[in-house]
Amino acid sequence: MLKNPLFLILALIAIIIVAIITFFLGGQRGDVPENEPAGDNEHMMEETGEMMAGDEMMDSGVAPQTYTVRITAGGFEPGTLTVRRGDTVIFRNNTSSPVWPASAVHPVHMAYPGSGIEKCGTTEAGNIFDACGGLEQSDTFSFQFGENGTWRYHNHLNPSMTGTIVVE
């Protein structure tokens, strides 16, 4: 069949790269299977009850809520959080090591619309899904989600630590 093992190895590497890219970018359009349960976020999230400036109502007529994702040695808790468009998520570092929550895909952070690591340190940094630096123990980063979809994110300092925010 194939007499050149190098060709076979290169083909396998290409397939693996395509699979990884598909995994990380596949969810950015908000495609969630209808038969997949939304999850029981009520027991996994901490609702702080804080309202955003002006207590604006989004399209649903419901005042935006604020949720907390705890960052622990085991990862992001909850791993998947479902919120409404306009809600704010606070990422709180509960570990003794620095963490850097940011939009997928590592290292460019561009899965969430308008985000990108190149905007860190600029006037646009406050508008992107990126902490733009490590959070020390008990530090927080908050982000208001204005785009519907399924948004994967990661810890830039430990890219295997990932989570998902579903915005409905």
TrEMBL record:
<feature type="transmembrane region" description="Helical">
    <location>
        <begin position="6"/>
        <end position="25"/>
    </location>
</feature>
<dbReference type="InterPro" id="IPR008972">
    <property type="entry name" value="Cupredoxin"/>
</dbReference>
<keyword id="KW-1133">Transmembrane helix</keyword>
<keyword id="KW-0472">Membrane</keyword>
<dbReference type="InterPro" id="IPR052721">
    <property type="entry name" value="ET_Amicyanin"/>
</dbReference>
<protein>
    <recommendedName>
        <fullName>EfeO-type cupredoxin-like domain-containing protein</fullName>
    </recommendedName>
</protein>
<keyword id="KW-0812">Transmembrane</keyword>
